[in-house]
Structures are given as structure tokens and as C-alpha cells.
Amino acid sequence: MTPPQMLPTTPGERPAAYRPDLLLALYERMVRIREFEEGVKFLFLEGTMPGTIHQCQGQEATAVGVCAALREDDFITSTFRGHGHALAKGLSVQELLDELFGATTGCCRGKGGSMHVGNMAKGMVPGIAIVGGGIPVAAGMALAFRMQRTARVVACFFGDGAVSEGAFHEGVNMAAIWNLPVIFVCENNLYGASTHVSQVMRDTHIARRVSSSYGIRADRVDGNEVLAVYATAQSAVAQCRAGNGPVFLELLTYRLTGHSRRDPCHYQPKDEREAWAAKDPIRRFEVTLKSQGLSDDASLEAVKTRIRREFEAAAAVARRQPLPTTQDLTTDVFA
Ligand SMILES: Cc1ncc(C[n+]2csc(CCOP(=O)(O)OP(=O)(O)O)c2C)c(N)n1
Ligand SMILES: [Mg+2]
């Protein structure tokens, strides 16, 4: 990924011009996530892929916009909904698909599965499926980075459901009093499983709650606008690297799929779903790319076709990868 360019002055503001290769890279990454999720959905429904899956169709701009502002040696923590975070941080389609098939060639040697994807060598702690569980971990990693005198930062992804957990208070408060280099990234998709945010918090403006409770910078941004996410993440990362962290980002987005594959999603009202489908981050960015003369329908379609083929080739390989043996039960454990 191209290194960050100019910093915006106001959170969420798009700088006037980004280099075309950066814009096209952002687009390609979002499409890779969407095609991955659609392809995995098919493999799951077909019955070939074991376990369950939590998918992120509709939320591609949050993962891509934040991770594009990070360096390779920065870290992210993630959740049970981690496929998009992983691809955005630079994990390969192959190592993820192998993991989803439970193969030893997967990013966690087949022992993590869909809810725990990650790769420490690529700056991603394997996903933590306990809601809010990654938040104290991110604060601890950031403390370690500080004590090691590095300029590395941690971006900690979690959902709106996590902000009422005790772990959230502990982690954010500790990061705040010690100015730790953490970007707390709340993907507010309006629902924790089937429960709407308004049923679990009186003030649904999460960023406002955080800035008044913890005394840190907290921005609320359109999470379906990849350049707004990227610009805000860049300035948050710069602030954290300069020793003035943490920063909280509330990214407003929407899951255009069920909570998990067994969820028919009946609790999302039709008009709400349609309104958010019209704000699909990929389609919106296509409009931007076309209006800037960087792409046309044919070239965008070519990107999708290439990425779809890349997925299909990786899936064909993943189906044939070796599965762990009983000997593998006692490897990769502490004791
Ligand atoms: C501590 C804890 N409580 C409950 C659960 C069960 N659970 C799994 S996902 C989920 C909803 C999480 O919602 P949110 O944090 O908004 O993330 P999203 O699914 O919207 O990405 C719940 C309640 C859990 N995994 N951990
Ligand atoms: Mg949610």
C-alpha cells in the first residue's frame, strides 16, 4: 500500500487530491474483501466449508480506510468479524481461505478458523471473539510499543456492542491516562447481533460519550466513505505516533448481511436496509473514481473479474490443503 500522503485539517475532510494509484489500491482492496465474502458465503452454503462465518459485506471502507493509514509493522486487533480487517492489513486470500477450511497451511495453521484469523508477522493479532476482548489487549500492546521506544501504533477494531463492556472502559481509560498509541476503531453498524443500538444506550452518539467520559479525541465519521475514513485515520495515526494518543473513531456503517450465516436478518427494517444499500461503500467510491476520470465501467468490471478469478483459484487450492493430524493437537500451546 502506498504510504500516507497529506494530512487533512478537519476530521473526516477529504484532501483535495490523492494519487491515482492510491485511489485504485483502495478500490481494489474493498473489492477483494467483497468478493472474498461473497465467495465464502457460497462455499459455506454449498456445505464444503466447516464452522460458521461472520461476514462484513457493506463495511469494507472501515477496514480498508484505517489499515491504509498504518505501516506494515503497526498492529491491529480484530473480532469474530475479521475477514475484512485481515485482507486490509495485507493477509493473503490463500492463507485466509486455507484457515477457513481448517488446513495446516492457514494463517493460524487451521487452529483458529473464521472467528480467529490473524498473522503476527503481518501485524494482525488473531481475532478475539469475546465482545470487547481485544480492547485491553490493544492497550497492552501499545504500552509495550511505548516501552520499547518504537513509533508503532495499534488500531483496535470492535463493534458498537463492545462499548458497554467493562473491558472497553478499562482499556480506553488506561490508554487515555497513559497517552498510549491506540486508535480505537468502533464500527457502529447499528446492531449488536439483532439488538439495535438505541435499546442498549441512551446516548447513541458514541463518539460524544467517549470524549466526555475519557477526555480523548473522538471523531464520528461516515464509515462508508473510504476517503473520509482514510483521512481521519491518517491524522489519528499521526497523533498517536507523536505521543498524543489515544484517538477514538466512531465509523458509521451497516452490515448488508446477517450477523452470522444462520441469521436471516429480519430485524433490519426494509427501508433502513435499502437506505444503507444505496450508500454501499464500493459503489459510492466507483462514482468518485469515475468522476475523477480514473476509471470507467469496463475497467471497474475488469478489476472485479480479476479478483473473482483470484478467489476461485485460491479456493480450488484451499480445498486440497492438508488438515491437522492428532500430533498437531499438542503443538502451538504453551504447556
Ligand atoms: C462478552 C460477550 N458477550 C456476548 C457474546 C455473543 N456475541 C457475539 S457477537 C455479539 C454482538 C456483537 O455486536 P457488535 O459488537 O456491535 O459487533 P458486530 O457484530 O455488529 O460487528 C454478541 C452479543 C460474545 N461473543 N462475547
Ligand atoms: Mg454492531
Please describe what this structure looks like:
With 335 residues, the chain is an alpha/beta fold. The protein has one domain: Rossmann fold (3-Layer(aba) Sandwich). 42% of the residues lie in helices and 10% in strands. It contains eleven helices and seven strands. α1 (20-46) packs antiparallel against α10. Bound molecules: thiamine diphosphate and magnesium ion (MG). Residues 80-81, 129-131, 159-162, 189, 191-193, 259 line the site of thiamine diphosphate.
What is the number of beta strands? 7
Low-confidence stretches: 1-9
- The CATH C-level name is Alpha Beta
Find the structural class using helix and strand composition: alpha/beta
CATH architecture descriptor name: 3-Layer(aba) Sandwich
Helical run tally: 11
- CATH 4th-level superfamily: Thiamin diphosphate (ThDP)-binding fold, Pyr/PP domains
Distance between the termini: 38 Å
Question: Total domains, how many?
Answer: 1
Name the ligand types. thiamine diphosphate, magnesium ion
Mass-distribution shape: globular
Order of helices and strands: HHEHHHEHEEEHEHEHHH
The strands making up the biggest β-sheet line up spatially as 1-2-3-7-6
In this structure, how is the largest beta sheet organized?
A: 5 strands, parallel
The rounded Rg comes to 19 Å
The CATH topology annotation reads as Rossmann fold
Q: Round the mean pLDDT to the nearest integer and report it.
A: 94
Residues in helix, %: 40-55%
Please indicate the percent range of residues in DSSP E strands (runs of 2 or more): 5-15%
